[in-house]
Amino acid sequence: MSINTNTNNASSPSPLKRAGERLAILGAGESGVGAAYLAQQQGYDVFVSDFGVIAPHYKDQLLQWNISFEESQHTESEILSAVEVIKSPGIPDKAPIIKKIKEKGIPVISEIEFAGRYTNARIVGITGSNGKTTTSSLTYFTLKNAGLNVGLAGNIGRSFAYQVATESFDTYVLELSSFMLDDMYKFKVDIAVLLNITPDHLDRYDYKMENYAASKFRITQNQTANDVFIYCADDPETIKVMEARSFAAKLYPFSIEKQITTGADLENDNIVINTPQEHFTMSINELALQGKHNIYNSMASGIVAKVLELRNDTLRDSLATFKNIEHRLEFVAKISGISFINDSKATNVNSTWYALESMTSDVVLILGGVDKGNDYSMLRDLVKQKVKAIVCLGKDNQRIHAAFEDLVDVIVNTSSAADAAQAAYHLAAKGDTVLLSPACASFDLFKNYEDRGNQFKAAVKEL
User: Fold this and answer.
1) Which annotated residues bind ATP (predicted)?
2) Does residue 66 share a domain with residue 94?
3) How much is the average pLDDT of 302-319?
4) In terms of Cα–Cα distance, which of 303, 327, 324, 330 is closest to 315?
C-alpha cells in the first residue's frame, strides 16, 4: 500500500471555480488520470484512489502534477468527503466502495460527463457492441482529412478530459462504451452513432439484454431536433428498442438489406448515402475495409461526413485509404504462404463472427480466454464453412471443445501466445490464414487484449 498526499500545487489551477471542494477519482488509468488533471485545472481539491497498483507512467504524471493519490486501497474517509466522484468505466456499481458512495448520496459520474462540462466542441459519439473502435478511427481520419480541427477520445487514445484540459478542438469523435454511457447524465452527443447491439458484458447488466440495450441507447439522451442519430436498420435489437421509443433528433438509418430514403443503403454493390443536402456513392470494392461488417462501419462514418457536408472527394479518399487500427483484423505477416492476422480486440463472439465472415481462405482459428458466458452457437455455420482447426488459448477451454468438436477434426490446447502461434503454423498449409480472434477477454493469461495481440505478433515474427 502507498499513498501520496503532496498537495502543494506548483502552479495555481485556473480558473479557481471549485476551490476547496473535494473531487474523488476512482481508478488511475487513462480516464482517471486525465480527469484528475482537468479537475485540478478547474480548482478542485483532487484525490485519486486505485484499488490496484497504478501503472508507473500514470504514477509519474500524478507526482509531476502534485495530485494526491493512493494505490492498492480505497481510504473511505478521503473518498466519502467528496462532493462528486468520477469512476473508471471498469468499476462495477456493485463494488463495495461505489455502494457506500451512493448510500451517502454523492453523485457518481464518468470522465466523459465531467469533461463535457468544460468544452463547447461539437461531439460525434459512437457506440455499439462491435465496430465502434474501427468506426471511430475511420470517422476521425475522415474529418481530419477534411481539415477539421478534431480530436479522438473516449475508449481510444488520450482521455477526453486530458484533451479538454490541454487542447482546443472544435470537434471530438468519442468512442463510447456502455460502461461510460452508464455514468453519463447531462452530457449531450450532437451526432450519435449506434452500430449494433449484440450480447456482451451481460454480467454487468443482470444478464438481461434489455438492460444492456438501454445502456447503449443512453447515447441519444438529451438530444434535440438540431441533433442527429445514426443507426443500423438491420440490427434487430436496435429496432426493437426504437419501436418502443420516440426520438427528438433527426434519424439517419443505414442498411445493406433494404432501401433507405434518407441515410445509407447498398445498391448494385455501391454504398449510397443521401442526406437532405448531399448525395454520395462509392463501390464497396474501393473500400479500404473489406467484409460485410465494414460496409456497415463505412456507411455509418460516411453519414457523419455528409451530415457535416464534407466534400465527396474527401470522403471517397478517406474510405479508400484508411488503415485499420492495431489488434483489429491487423495483418501481421505471411510466412511460407500462410497469412497471420491479429484480431485480439475480438473479445466477444460477435466480433469473432465478423472476423470469420471476412475471411476468404481456409482458417486456423485461435480462440479462448476468459469466457463471459459466451454462446458459441452463432459461430457454428462459419466454423463449419471456413475453419480447418482450432487452437485454444486460455486456461479453461472446455466450452470451446464442447461447442466445436463435432465440426472440426483438430482442436488443441495452448497456454501462451508463442505456443498458439507455433501450433497454428504447423496446422496451417500454404494459402491458409491463421486468425487470432479469441471471442473472449484476455485476463487469464495476459494484461489486456493489447498485450495478447503484441505477444502474438512477436511470436509470429519468431516463426
Assistant:
1) 128-134
2) yes
3) 97
4) 303
Which residues have a Cβ under 8 Å from the Cβ of 366 and sit 6 or more positions away?
390, 391, 392, 393, 420, 424, 434, 435, 436, 437, 438, 456
Do 89 and 135 fall within a single domain?
no
What is the pLDDT at residue 414? 96
The verdict on 263 and 207 lying in the same domain is yes
Nearest Cα residue to 79 out of 38, 116, 113, 51? 51
Looking at per-residue pLDDT, the higher value among 44 and 18 belongs to: 44
Report the binding-site residues: 128-134
Cell of 293: 461488417
Q: Are 278 and 146 contained in the same domain?
A: yes
Point out the annotated binding site for ATP. Answer: 128-134
Task: For the beta carbon of residue 344, count every other beta carbon within 10 angstroms.
Answer: 28
Return the higher-pLDDT residue of 334 and 204. Answer: 334
Domain that holds residue 279: 114-321
Residues 133 and 265 in one domain: yes
